[in-house]
Amino acid sequence: MLGKLAELVLFGIGPLALGGLLMPVAVMAEEAEIVGEVSYRERIALPPNAVLSVKLTDVSLADAPAAVIAEQKVEPAGQVPIKFALKFDPAIIQPKMSYAVQARITVDDKLWFINDERYSVDPAKREPVRMMLRKVSQEETPPLPTLFDTTWLAEDIGGAGVIDDAQTTFSVTEDGSVTGRGGCNGYFAQAKIEGDRISVGKAGMTMMACPEALMDQERKFHDALSKTASFRFDGDGKLFFVDADGNDLVRFSNAG
pTM for this one? Predict the structure, then answer.
């Protein structure tokens, strides 16, 4: 008999009668969650040490700090859109109270992006939340590096360095128009860019002949462009082209 009672208690079945007394047994509520994603309008990439913080808060009292119901940190944040999932105990939620989701992106504990409008939610419905964050002013945070309308000078191709006096460059506009020099010849191409994903189409180029070392660097550079699947920036503002397996193909510095 005691073995059966222990089994019932273990699985949260109650109340139970034991020695003529009713013993209520706590039943764990199923955990709930609100999912969503965070983005921003600027076409710029986040550095690798960016952190996304998202909170589900009780905002019922206008003259009191919001009470945090659930919180998640996405570290590293990666690139937008950044997905999140806030897990909470549904027993905490009260039907007549007001709830909202808040989000911010920080880098080295400095605020870079924040939501400047209220994203009200009904935790009972658990509908996906899509948040658009606002970039804080330039006085508040250093400027983010941008891929577009910048001349990027190759410093390394495939881990083999580059010829110092060769100008291997890459530049792209927001509509995907690519121009640059491979080391000997000028080239042009079209790129498709979505978030931190990039693919560069086959390049057209001039037909100058140069020393074999320059031609070899140019061939390696265009081969790297054809394999590029994404890009990222490091903390020093260097641009990296990366293949589908996550390997660095080309490292660039900002040449203006």
Answer: 0.50
